[in-house]
Amino acid sequence: MKTRPTIADLARTANVSVATVNRILAGSASVRPRTIEKVERAAEQIGFYGLGVIEDRLRRALPSYRFGFLLQQSSRDLYKLFGSKIVEAASRRVNEKVEPIVEFVDVLEPQNIANRLAALGERCDAVAIIAGDHPLIGQTIHSLRTSGKPVVTYITDQSAPDRAGYVGTDNWKLGRTAAWFLAQTIPDAGRIAVFIGNHRYQCQDICDASFRSYMREHAPHLQIDDSRPTHEESHQAYQMVRELLADSDDLRGIYIVGGGISGVLKALRESDDVKRSRVRVICRDIGPETRKGLTEGLITAALCHPLDKISEELIATMVTALENRGDTILQRVVPFEIITPESV
Q1: Is 258 helix (H, G, I), strand (E, B) or coil?
Q2: Helix H segments across the chain?
Q3: How far apart are CA 216 and CA 191, in angstroms?
Q4: Count of C-beta atoms within a 10 Å radius of residue 110
Q5: DSSP track, 208-235
Q6: pLDDT in tens, 272-307
Q7: Structure pTM?
Q8: Alpha-carbon torsion (137, 141, 142, 143), positive or negative
Q9: Do residues 201 and 133 make contact, with C-beta atoms less than 8 angstroms apart?
């Protein structure tokens, strides 16, 4: 008859002392989480009867954090998707217990964002933010750092020197990739419209600049219009596309650096077949409307944040910022995904 593994067997397999195993099982003394994790793996390996107790001890020994995430525009499906992916990523952490507090800002005035950031920071150990670059927000980031609350910028960076880190894509490469798609798919001369949400979003401004850089080098047959701000509002993008299609016949491409894709698609669907077929559209990120536009063939490509990967990287960076509390700004660049009508 096979004997049941003993505490001594577990200690030997985990390469720890019997006293350490006893402390873990009793839960009466402090043991490092990494040691508990090692004993847990050993218990699973040998079939130790107290595995459930050890797992519970590990859960209670893990560091616990409350992280705040200040996103934008609760009405937009994309930001709702960002929020849900952050919550999922928090639940997958194995070395910490992370409680995510996800909030949305609908009034995008800098003072309102700064106030919301300060309030969220008071309730959390660290905060991540998506926002346009503005001195008022930078001052709040400084205040939070002074009080021991690191702020990590997400998707778009801030110029604030006191930010703890940035997690996002390489926006220079993203803009040039968008330009490559349009240059490759538009053989004839024509105009390209560029829609930008707001020039204070660093990610959008960098994409805009790199897009133009590529076009100057490789597509002199295409005329790039001045950037048109949509203020992240679909109805403004809709009106602008309608006017562009009505005023001339030389529109050949639209690059949507920020929000407004649903308005662009609505205007294209309402246009005649000939004009619609001439226009190539490149946009950012994949929400329900973008996915529909790809399947309809209205969008040539979407250049997207890989939401699972970037959400995990964001939380990991916030943990590191809390653990290190150094002067180095953590830069985490996650490669973007390219989605076409054939890969959606």
Answers
A1: coil
A2: 7-14, 18-26, 33-46, 51-61, 77-91, 110-123, 135-146, 171-185, 202-218, 234-247, 261-270, 273-278, 288-295, 307-324
A3: 13
A4: 17
A5: HHHHHHHHHHH-TTEEEPPPEE-TT-HH
A6: 999 999 999 999 988 889 999 999 999 999 999 999
A7: 0.85
A8: positive
A9: yes
